[in-house]
Write a structure and sequence with these properties.
alpha+beta, 3-stranded antiparallel sheet, two-stranded antiparallel ribbon, 5 strands, flat, Kazal-like domain-containing protein, Prot_Inhib_GrowthFact_Antg, Kazal_dom, disulfide bond
Length: 149
């Protein structure tokens, strides 16, 4: 936030004559961690690349770590295959948390569903309805109030 507003991508909040305003970073750290931009230029570090993109109003992105002349810097032991990626179909992923949450039924959805039936076609009662029916039978079927076993 800068003076109550959010700065645009790559901009920072600067104090200019005591007033806060959004603008491009004026300085970057001097550390040397070269990165190659997708414009083919090598920058001292990611901050310098972002600053150049901000000042130029362009969308320069990091292509890879290291100088553009040296090519991509890879960590020891990690190599990339020169073979093209196969076009085999990927396995279907299990639904994630958002999908499961979206597919849940709300209480109003459950009430609007048709009654369940058993394979024989007989109506299947919920536990609550079954308990209510049993309680009604106890009240009507036992005239002297004794427990039915």
């Amino acid at each position: 936030m800068c003076a109550g507003t959010c700065c645009k991508r790559l901009q920072v909040c600067l104090a200019v004559d005591g007033v806060q305003a959004c603008g491009c970073r004026q300085k970057c750290p001097a550390r040397q961690r070269p990165v190659c931009g997708n414009d083919g230029l090598t920058y001292n570090n990611q901050c310098e690349l972002n600053r150049a993109a901000c000042l130029g109003g362009s969308r320069i992105r990091r292509k890879f770590k290291g100088t553009c002349e040296d090519g991509p810097v890879r960590k020891a032991g990690k190599t990339r295959s020169k073979r093209p990626k196969s076009k085999r179909p990927r396995p279907v992923k299990r639904p994630g948390r958002k999908t499961r949450r979206r597919n849940r039924l709300s209480p109003s959805d459950v009430q609007s569903l048709p009654a369940k039936t058993s394979p024989s076609g007989a109506h299947v009662q919920s536990n609550q309805a079954r308990q209510n029916t049993a309680a009604d039978d106890d009240d009507e079927g036992n005239e002297n109030g004794a427990a039915i076993e």
